[in-house]
Design goal:
homodimer, 434 Repressor (Amino-terminal Domain), Rossmann fold, 13 helices, DNA-binding
Chain lengths: 335, 335
DNA sequence: CACTGCAAGTTTTACGTATAACTACCGGGT
DNA sequence: ACCCGGTAGTTATACGTAAAACTTGCAGTG
């Protein structure tokens, strides 16, 4: 009889069913065929049911040396993008008997390595987004299998990477705007040191350099509507040669540009074209609706988890970039 | 010498430092004063450092029978609201040596009890938001300490609850709109069976019933901009007695009302006043900026974690509601 | 009849840690 | 000479599980 107030253990079940603890473990672990008779197995299952027994996962994890749990590190949850990444990752994980623990890290993982303070050594692997290099080495010091999302394939030594084809998204945006006759561009860049944003800047520069007669200015803003509003207002206040198209690193920045435009008396899209990246719900909430690059966050998460599973099983994590799609709406028009 | 490829254990450290495993445990656990000499302690710390030893948390948790980890169940991460709740909860938790694991449950916890499949028995407690009743009983069957956020204090038998004073928020909204001369109201309600939304409806009804000459219609929509747009368009198309003020269950719904209004040629706020609840970033992204009830998500999370800690320590979880604040912006005007 | 093989279990051990209980030594008081 | 108390450790055990190694009984085989 288990002591009251305590969860029943396999030994309690064994006692109740009149068998050994090992027999219980075999039955519950579904590895009893040819080891325990059908009748006994049923007796064990009955006892387990009436006692309300469920295996202690901590003990199981200690015994097996694995947890079937992975950590997903994301930089922020202020938009639904990383919620989608989680959803995709969790879906694939559960199909393989894995669980996903979510760690939102406003600053990336710092030297304190917060998530590991409570989860460390209870993880089979890590999927990390936009992570600082120091944190990367900290994790690799643990020999913990690691998949990096949207990270410099060159810098993430040895770790598998899964990337969105952001560069192609920028190409599509640029071609779209050039086709509308725009020549003077403003790049409203996220004020964050992260590979995924560096790609945007690099690709835009290269693309425009190839087209004679174009100009490109850059302004930086923290990823927030207010911050973008201020930066855009300043950048758009130059009187001659004001940009006619603003390419934003994400939709929130674009929303800030709308506010700056309104304040400056510039109509979108007649006097100013604006584009974003992400295709958040926000993109269709603002007026006019935002032309943006749709990123498939769930697919991103699925691929990330898939790559981690591959690493865990010793397979080779495939690494083709995930395609993105330009969604043309009302915020872009002829120059 | 630890086998290559394996994490060093306390026994490896003991061997390297020439002491027993127990001594290592004492030193690492900082409970060695009067048990181990300073010199030996230093030798142990040195050995641990050079071997890169960190305690195996799974083993520690098994030994101690607790994990210092709690689960935060949230219904969705599609807005930054629950990100704030997490941030607050995690801050308080870390001050007490606890970690918080986040489980976004699109449907509430189903019969499958997904999060527990991987975390069950590895948790010291649960903080749950808008959870289905069946899930509540499933958790209580585990005797796991539970705090409910924004749940019916009557229905959550025995569990501690922490609530936002939503009813007061609705009162403030109603008084504001009545003061502007509005008499015909539309309540755009979230199509979700959850106590926090029931409170909104009940309070609005009661408040308006007390004021002669007022009318109240109700429309329901799923919590999304598109859904709200459709529902609002239908509800606002009635030609006589059209509502002059729309009270929305949250900011996303309000954004949908903006779109419906635009489609119907109604100007906000001149011909239609609109209010939300939450004060998301979205509220200031749309034009005009949204009058809404600000909810302090981080404080909500802090209080939730505080209550859970109280339960864990056998103290009484205090239960006063968290105040909310009406933020008047440009979306409300004279009737 | 001795031997083999198999079903149906049981006994034992290991995972890595924390800690209760024990030991050994040494200086000092009586 | 003896005990006492404190210091500085060590030994042993338990947490709950999984699984390897062992035991037992019995039917079939040559």
């Amino acid at each position: 009889m288990p002591r009251a107030g305590t969860r029943p253990t396999s030994r309690d079940v064994a006692r109740a069913a009149g068998v050994s603890q090992a027999a219980v473990s075999l039955v519950m672990g579904d590895k009893w065929r040819g080891r325990v008779s059908e009748a006994t197995a049923e007796r064990v299952r009955d006892a387990a049911r009436t006692l309300g027994y469920r295996p202690n996962l901590v003990a199981r994890n200690l015994r097996l040396g694995r947890t079937r749990t992975v950590l997903l590190v994301v930089p922020a949850l202020t938009t639904e993008f990383f919620a989608g990444v989680y959803t995709g990752a969790a879906r694939v994980a559960s199909q393989h008997g894995f669980g996903v623990v979510l760690y939102p890290s406003p600053e990336g993982i710092g030297p304190a390595r917060d998530p590991f303070a409570s989860a460390e050594a209870a993880l089979d692997g890590v999927i990390a987004s936009s992570m600082a290099a120091e944190a990367l080495t900290a994790i690799r010091g643990d020999q913990l299998p690691l998949v990096m999302l949207d990270s410099d394939p060159g810098a993430s030594v040895g770790a598998a990477t899964v990337n969105l084809d952001i560069a192609d998204g920028i190409r599509q945006v640029t071609d779209h705007l050039l086709g509308l006759g725009h020549r003077r561009f403003l790049h409203l860049a996220a004020d964050v040191a992260s590979w995924t944003f560096e790609v945007r800047a690099r690709e835009l520069e290269e693309r425009l350099r190839a087209v004679p007669g174009t100009s490109l200015r850059t302004a930086r803003a923290p990823i927030s509507i207010r911050g973008a509003e201020a930066a855009a207002q300043a950048a758009l206040s130059v009187s001659p040669d004001r940009a006619t198209a603003v390419v934003c690193d994400d939709d929130q920045l674009a929303a800030g540009v709308y506010k700056a435009a309104r304040r400056l008396g510039l109509r979108v899209p007649d006097e100013l074209s604006v584009t974003g990246i992400d295709d958040l719900a926000l993109a269709t909430a603002i007026d006019p609706e935002l032309t943006t690059v749709r990123l498939d966050a769930e697919l991103f998460g699925e691929r990330g988890m898939g790559a981690l599973l591959a690493v865990l099983e010793g397979r080779d994590p495939s690494a083709d970039d995930i395609p993105v799609e330009l969604i043309v709406r009302g915020s872009t028009g002829r120059a």
